[in-house]
Amino acid sequence: MDISRRTREILLTFFKSMELCETLFLNSHIGYVIARRDTGQFLVVNDAFVKVTGYSRKELLELCYKDIVPRESVAWIREVILSKLEQEATSDVFESRIIRKTGGQVWLQSRIYRIDEELVLVKEIDITQAKITEAELTRALNINRRPLPDSVSGTEREVARLVAAGLSSKEIAAQIHISPRTVDNHRSSIRKKLGVQPTHTLRDALQSYTA
After folding, report:
1. Is 3's pLDDT higher than 70?
2. Half-sphere exposure (Cβ direction) of 107: Cα atoms closer than 13 Å
3. What letter does residue 65 receive in the DSSP assignment?
4. CB within 8 A of 118, min separation 6: which ones?
5. In this structure, are residues 115 and 32 in contact, taking their beta carbons and an 8 Å threshold?
């Protein structure tokens, strides 16, 4: 990863040497970001964070956190998380979501470190798969569940499993390598086969079934 002089200066405000910076930040498999504390503007992002978001590094450096998190999360992060840094050097660990460039959402385990009055370092760990597994385990432990009918078969069963875990059509499409439109068609078919009423979500209905 080539870095500019300004980026190097920013990194050295937090790390004692470029060697440590390369080991702990630039080459880490964990996503790291340095951003402006007041606006959330991205100043430095490592390769792992670039990969998670689906944006290019150049695109991210033209954005702020508010551009990639769900709208309802913006005020909470600012008021609950960032306000704590007024008195403390680090935030508590918290879970949040970002919206990938392709439209799917990624669950992150996050922690914010105050560098100085202007800058923060953000540690971002992708926990999306863990969230899916957790949802599936919760469903599997529900002893009142019944198996999906035989009419729901093949790809539909895989779609049903991921819908029940809370994934969007775009996220499911990326997981099983089909188009979002095809996912939507499968969702409609599953609704009909299970007799899901229009007033209920398919995800809620699937909580009563095993995949």
Report:
1. no
2. 15
3. G
4. 36, 37, 38
5. no
Work out whether strand 94-99 and strand 42-45 pair parallel, antiparallel, or are unpaired: unpaired
One of 3.30.70.560, 2.60.40.1120, 3.10.450.50, 1.10.10.10 is the CATH number of 129-210, namely: 1.10.10.10
Q: pLDDT of 107-156, one tens digit each?
A: 999 999 888 888 888 999 999 988 888 777 776 776 567 889 999 988 99
What does the pLDDT read at residue 114?
87
Q: Would you state the pLDDT for residue 189?
A: 93
- Name the one residue in this structure whose structure tokens are 């819908």: 163
Q: Which amino acid appears at position 17 of this protein?
A: S
User: In the numeric block, which tokens belong to residue 20?
Assistant: 């440590």
CA distances from 93 to 7, 125, 149 (A): 26, 11, 41
Q: Which CATH architecture has domain 5-126?
A: 2-Layer Sandwich (3.30)
Query: Structural domain boundaries of the chain?
Result: 5-126, 129-210
Name the nearest CA neighbour of 208 among 138, 151, 155: 138
Under DSSP, the state recorded for 64 is B
Query: In whole angstroms, what is the distance from residue 192 CA to residue 152 CA?
Result: 10
CA-CA distance, 31 to 124, in Å (whole number)? 5
